[in-house]
Amino acid sequence: MKKIALALLCSLPMFASVHVAAAYPYIGELVKTVAGDKAEVSVIASASSDPHFVTPRPSYIGVLRSSDLLILNGGGLEIGWIPPLLAQANNAKIVQGSEGYLDLSKYVKMIDKPASLSRAQGDIHAEGNPHYSLDPHIMPTLAKVIMLKLSAMDPINKNIYHANYEAFTKHWSEKLTQWDVQMAPCRNTEVVQYHELFNYFFNRYGIHTAATIEPLPGISPSSKHTMEVITQIRSKKIPLIAQDDYHEPKTAQFIAEKSGAKVVVLAHDAGNGSLDKWFDTLVAQTCPR
Amino acid sequence: MVKKTVLSLVCTGALFAGNTEVEELRQQMAQLQQQLAQMQQHIATLEAQAPKESAVQEESLESMEKAPTTSVTTLLPDIALILNGGYTSRNIGNDKYADASIPGFVKSGDMEIPFNAKDGFNLNYAEVAMSSTVDPYLDASAIFHIHGDGEVEIEEAYFVTRALDYGFRFKAGKFKSAFGRVNEKHHHAWNFEDQELINNALFGPDGIGGEGAQLQWVAPTPLYLMAGFELFNGNPDQGFSAKESASTAVGYLKTSTDVGAATLLAGLSYAQGKSEVQNLDGSGHPIPDSFSNYGQTRVYGADLTLEYPLADYGQLIWQNEWMQRDKDIESMTQKQSGYYSELLYKIDENWATGVRYDDIYQNRTDNPLTSIDNLHRTSVKLEYKPFEFSRFRLQYNQDHSKTIDDQAKTIHEVMLNYTLELGAHGAHAF
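ok -> structure tokens follow
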């Protein structure tokens, strides 16, 4: 009888010390890696939706209401959807400025910072390009930030977080070496992408973005701009068009047909697979052997 | 008992064993000691490899922060400017339209038409919204609504708590009530260019709101459940008495659940205040500024919305709201009920369309002439958004809700409007 009661107790998530709300799937994966079963993670956005415009659903408020820690990508990526949810969740633990509000972008050096700001340039991010999670070399820093935050909030399990973090960095550095080797042949090539979503990944491996399918950030493709992209691909013999999961695929297909470049649909987030799988796939797709 | 005896027998047996066996035992002992020493050494190295507490503490989150990008301007409030205007065409002239009435609700000459009042060009408003965090405990916002004719109005100005415990949030100042689904929303966030008919008939163009206080509570459950209570100064424009500083009380319960990819939102609302009836002179004409109170005015509301996401930023929304007002007057309790149902189809990032049907199906007042119970209106719209912060909207209304010179008159209107949002812009709620 006692054994059954114990088994029941163990199966309850009551042993999770920290309830974490992760804005995006990759953050959720990092938290799971660092915290193991010491944290219960709820991921808000899905990997296939536009990270800028996640459709707010009241069920997200339920998640935020009962979280101890909210981890954001930051850099303005969530500005279009998190603030009203956070305002309505009425959870003092995770409001901006409290201990349970963690903005990962504060610990990352962001690129593509605009020299001047005007919406005539489209939907630009004042703080720089916020899609830094596409650089695999940034992951250990993020894991470390999460490890330190969890350790501060839940000091009892500090050693566990640290050990998990150490194991992750060890494993990740092996993966980094592997990816660096695999990507090396593609250095100094050119690519076309829809939105400047994969800049961190391409920059890391010396791949230059020759053009974007959208004329300006957040502006839908125009026929004039599309023709210019086709001309550019033809003259420079650009082999690859990086399409993402959420923009309309027709323009990329059209450009591919007219120019001979190949369209690959790249994942901008970890999805249901692990972080390893996410980058394994990205590497295999962008620099096939 | 038996086991112990056996053990002692074995031990005594060993004592009598020969020399060679003793030697073997000694050797085994030595081996064991050696193994023990090796294990101790191994433990020591493992301990050395294990993370040191101090090492963990040395690295703080603060030390990992990149150079801050803060500038002085980040301490200024977020400022947004919203412009709305357009071109309207109607089958009746401006004077007639201004004198129209909604029988049983709005008398001829009392109609407020804040948007698209003129046949021709209209600059409806320029709205300046400012908001900021005041301190660790409060956020504050103010929205200045500047009408096309230059009249400035503080549409909302309020503070909200940031960090109350147990899921509470307190708001006070001048603000719009969260009664129902659309009451709280500003014009530029409306699904159509004009207000839903039942909202307009019951509460006027500004909806329930004003100077007051609000307490909201979110349940600590995975299922979204929110309860709110509000008190406002009574306002005759909203159908409630202001006499002897009467208050209007509002309460609501809202919930939502996800059904697969779809989101279902539902709410129940209630508002109550004193009734107010304008006194009439001997010949039946209203006496200016002379009112009597007879009991209470109660408004019941229910809303149901279904949202379904589609590919390429598309979305299908079916939104419905029903309201009934029971108003005690001298001779009876007036009962007036209506609803709207709208189907919105967001095709992609740039295009959206929608239809709306408004109906007031019960209109029981003490005047048989105004108790017209089939007031209805049909609207269709087409929207084009070149960018997130600009929107062009074409809307057509066929309006059977108004009388002109006490005659029912079908109003046809076509409106082409622009809405531009400049500067810092907060996200919209669902």
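Chain B is about 15% helix and 50% strand.
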